[in-house]
Structures are given as C-alpha cells and as structure tokens.
Specification:
The chain has 152 residues and is α/β, with parallel strands linked by helices. It folds into two domains: 62 residues, Roll (2,3-Dihydroxybiphenyl 1,2-Dioxygenase, domain 1); 87 residues, 2,3-Dihydroxybiphenyl 1,2-Dioxygenase, domain 1 (Roll). Helix content is 32%, strand content 30%. A four-stranded mixed sheet has the order 1-4-3-2, covered by helices on one side. Helix 4 packs antiparallel against helix 5. It is elongated. 22% of the residues are buried. The mean pLDDT is 96.
Length: 152
C-alpha cells in the first residue's frame, strides 16, 4: 500500500460533491473513485484520484464558494488534449482568457500545454516575450500560434 500524499486538495461543494467527482473521473482517462462516505443517501465526503493526484470532496453547504484565488493547473501534452479538456471542463461553465476556465461547479482550472512553459523559459528573452504576448491574446491556448510567435 502506497503512503498517503502529504497534501491533498480538498474541495467544498454545496450538495454537488458526488456529481463533481463523477464528472472529473469521467473526463480524465487515468482516474478512479477511491472511497465514499455517505450521510443517508447523500455523499458527505469522497476521495478520488486523477493521474495519481488524490482529491477529497465534501458536501459542506452554501457557506463557501470557489474563486480564482486557487485553481487546478492541468498540464497537457498535445493540442488535441487541450481542445478536449477545454470543451469538456468548460461545458456549463465559463471560458476565460489565457487557458483559464470555470467549470459548471465554479472551480477554476488552467488548461495549459507543456509547450507553453518550454517556450516561455527559452534563454532568448525576445522569443519568450513574443510567446507571452501571443498567449495573452488567447482564450484556449493554441500551440501552433505559440510556435509561430516563437519562431518569428
């Protein structure tokens, strides 16, 4: 049995913890539900895993809402993965700028290709600046447009 992680994101929902957990597990291929604690017919807490990262959810009531002060950063390896996750996670929510979105539960996520970080960290500051300027004009991140700016 592997040791528990030192830090686990804990997400507070107002009655939709089970729906949210099932939603995330249905979107990410390498995910699973680990455990559920019920209070009557309602999920009180649950634990699930996406790509080896554990999450806990709680139906805690309406006292707290998600905001942009914290988000989940989703590293993508291809434009296809960016496109797929962008559409699935934004469904019923709100698409934002620079790869940010709010899902239908109000949780902020960043759908970011690894290529963006690689280009932004280039030793040539002019290339990195062009990539940053291109990214700032985007909603969903477009790797090809970033590469065009990078290669100018």
């Amino acid at each position: 049995m592997s040791p528990s992680p030192k830090i686990t994101p804990f997400l507070w929902f107002d009655g939709s913890a089970e729906e949210a957990m099932n939603h995330y597990v249905s979107i990410f291929p390498n995910s699973r539900i680990l455990g559920v604690t019920r209070h009557g017919d309602t999920v009180f807490t649950a634990t699930f895993e996406i790509e080896g990262q554990k999450f806990m959810v709680l139906n805690g009531g309406p006292a707290f809402k998600f905001n942009e002060a914290i988000s989940l950063f989703v590293n993508c390896e291809s434009q296809g993965e960016v496109d797929d996750l962008w559409e699935k996670l934004a469904a019923g929510g709100q698409k934002g700028r620079c790869g940010w979105l709010k899902d239908k539960f109000g949780l902020s996520l960043q759908i970011i290709p690894s290529a963006l970080g690689e280009m932004l960290q280039d030793k040539d500051p002019a290339k990195a600046k062009r990539v940053m300027e291109a990214m700032l004009q985007m909603d969903k991140i477009d790797i090809e447009r970033l590469r065009e700016a990078y290669n100018l």
